[in-house]
Design a protein that fits this description.
This protein is α+β, with helices and mostly antiparallel strands. A hairpin with a 3-residue loop joins strand 3 and strand 4.
């Protein structure tokens, strides 16, 4: 199942050349991952408070294919590739009119917010994600 989140490019997202600054693609992807979890029924603040976990990016590989520009309407997708005991691997795409502009493979680790040591993903999250894998 692919989750899709709309993003509009604002002037502040662009560089002097008028295209989206490369680091802002990562911000768009981060927002989409947060909204993906929310759509699944999980607020990150609640996960931290009630389950003692937070999700952190442990690695990311991104390919920039074509530039996005001011006022573009983009779609950022999140797709579960693999669910492990303490990590999630996601594929993400940023597209304009179904044309891929950037693609990324993101490894998310589940950690204790106090120690930042790896921990198991809470069972309610595993159950919800497992039904979508």
């Amino acid at each position: 199942m692919i989750f899709k989140w709309p993003v509009r490019v604002y002037y502040e997202d662009t560089d002097v050349g008028g295209v989206v600054y490369y680091a802002n693609y990562l911000k768009f992807m981060e927002r989409a991952r947060t909204e993906w979890l929310r759509a699944l029924g999980f607020e990150q603040t609640v996960l931290a408070r009630d389950h003692g976990v937070v999700f952190v990016v442990s690695s990311l590989t991104i390919d920039y294919l074509k530039p996005a520009a001011f006022n573009d309407e983009l779609a950022v997708t999140v797709e579960l590739e693999k669910l492990g005991a303490g990590q999630i691997i996601l594929m993400q795409t940023i597209a304009r009119n179904a044309e891929a502009l950037a693609t990324a493979r993101v490894r998310i680790g589940c950690v204790n917010p106090g120690t930042f040591r790896p921990v198991r993903i809470p069972e309610p999250v595993v159950a919800r994600l497992g039904s979508r894998a």
